[in-house]
Amino acid sequence: MISDSDQKFGTLRSFLWPIRRGEVRKIIPMLIMLSAIAFNYSILRNLKDVIVITAKSSGAEAIPFIKVWVLLPMAVLATVIFTKLSSRFSQERVCYIIISSFLLFYALFAFVLYPLRDQLHPHETADWLQQVLPSGFMGLIAMLRNWTFTAFYVMCELWGTIVLSVIFWGFANEITRIGEARRFYSVIGIGSNISAIIAGQTANYLTFAEYSPLFPFGSDSWEQTLALISIVVTVSGILTMSALWWVNRNVLNDPAYEGFHSTIDGGNEPKLIKKKRKKLSLRDSFSYLTNSKYICYIAILTVSYNLVINLVEVIWKSELKTLYPTPEHYSNYMNNLTSISGIFSTIAALFMARVIARVGWTKTALVTPLIMLVTSLGFFFFFFMKDYFGDSFLALVGMS
After folding, report:
1. Model confidence pLDDT, tens digit, residues 323-346
2. Are 196 and 42 in contact (CB under 8 A)?
3. Would you say 146 and 121 are in contact if contact means Cβ atoms under 8 Å apart?
4. Which terminus of the chain has fewer Cβ atoms in its 10 Å neighbourhood, N or C?
5. What does the pLDDT average to over 303-309?
6. pTM above the 0.90 mark?
7. Could you read off the pLDDT of 19-64 as tens digits, one per residue?
8. Measured distance CA(13)–CA(24) in Å, rounded
9. What are the pLDDT digits (tens) for 171-186?
10. With helix as H, strand as E and coil as C, how does the chain read?
11. Bridge partners of residue 270, in order along the sequence
C-alpha cells in the first residue's frame, strides 16, 4: 500500500525518485559518495580474495587465520585511531584523513609491495614451518608467507567497515532529517547496488586487458591490472572526498537550511543543527554500548551472520580455486557474481519498502537467514556427497 506522502509523487516517481526539488542538492552528493564508496568496496572485496587465495602456497584456508589474528586486532586499532582523531579534528577532516590513508596504502601495494613480493615474502622460513608444523597450520603459514597480501586483505576489509559503515553512514545520519531518511536512503541504496554492477564489469574489463609495454608499471598483464585498478579506486576515492567537500560548503552552511524546512507531508521539520557533543572516551563508549539491550541484540545478529558466512565461504572459495586457479579467471568469476548480485539487489531494493510495509520488519529480515539455511544445506549436501552421487548427477544433467 502506498502512503499519502508517496501518493504526492505519483506511483512511478515514488519508486524511483521520491525527492523534492529543494532536496536535490543534498541527496546528489550523498548519492555520489555512497556510489563511489560502494564501487571501491565491490572491487576491493573481490580483489583481496583473488590475491590471497591464488597466491603461492595459499588458499581459502588462510582467510580464517587472517580474520582472527590480523583483521580483528586491526579493527580494534582502527576504532581507537578513529576515536582519537574524532576527539581532535572535525568530522569532515577525519573523513579526509581516513580515506586518504586507505588510498595511499592501495597505491603502495599496487606499485611497490606487489611487484616486490618475491623479495619481501619469507618463503624459506615458511617452507621450514610447513615441514615442522602439522597440516592444520597451513592457513597460518600462508598468512605469514604472503604477509603483504595479508595486509592488503585487511585494508580492503576495513574499507567496508570504517569508510562505508562508520564514516559514510555516520555522516548521512548526521545531515539527514527523520522525514527525509526513508526516501533518501531508498534512493542512495539503489545507487550503491547499481555501482556494484558497474564495479564488477569495470574490474572484468581491466582484468583481461592485454599487457602493454607503453604502460610504465607492471612486468606482466596482472601487475598492470592491479596498477589500473588502484588508479580507478583512487579516482573514486577522490570523487568521494570532493562530494563531501561540496556538501559541507554548499549545503550544510546554506542559510536556506536554517530554521524550519517544509517536509514532503506538508508539515515543518526543524533543521538538523550541528551541536557540539560531549566527546566520550573509548571506555565510556563501550560502556554505553554494553548497557544497551538494543545494541547487544544487534551485536548478536552481526556475530551470528559473520559466523555463518565464514563457515561457508572457506569451503566455497576453496572449491572455486579448483575451477579457476589463475588470478584472472578467479577474478572474472567473482566480478560477474558481483554484477549479478547487484542486479538482484537493485530489483529487491525497489520493492523492499512495500514488502516491509506489508509483512513487517521481522518477517522481511528472516528471509536472509532462511535463504542462507536452504542454500547451505544444498551446497554442503553436494560437497560431502559428490563421491557418492557425482557420476549419477553427471549422467542426469550433463555436468559435475
Report:
1. 999 999 999 999 999 999 999 998
2. yes
3. yes
4. N
5. 87
6. no
7. 888 888 889 999 999 999 999 999 999 999 999 999 989 999 999 9
8. 14
9. 998 888 877 877 888 8
10. CCCHHHHCCCHHHHHHCCCCHHHHHHHHHHHHHHHHHHHHHHHHHHHHHHHHHCCCCCCCCHHHHHHHHHHHHHHHHHHHHHHHHHHHCCHHHHHHHHHHHHHHHHHHHHHHHCCCHHHHCCHHHHHHHHHHCCHHHHHHHHHHHCHHHHHHHHHHHHHHHHHHHHHHHHHHHHHCCHHHHHHHHHHHHHHHHHHHHHHHHHHHHHHCCCCCCCCCCCCCHHHHHHHHHHHHHHHHHHHHHHHHHHHHHHCCCCHHHCCEEECCCCCEEECCCCCCCCCCCHHHHHHHHHCCHHHHHHHHHHHHHHHHHHHHHHHHHHHHHHHCCCHHHHHHHHHHHHHHHHHHHHHHHHHHHHHHHHHCHHHHHHHHHHHHHHHHHHHHHHHHHHHHHHHHHHHHHCCC
11. 260
- Nearest in space to 163 (alpha carbons), one of 73, 326, 37: 37
**Residue 281, all three cell numbers:** 572516551
The residue with cell 543543527 is 273
Measured CA to CA, the distance from residue 149 to residue 164 in angstroms comes to 22
Q: Among all chains, which residue has been given the C-alpha cell 554500548?
A: 289
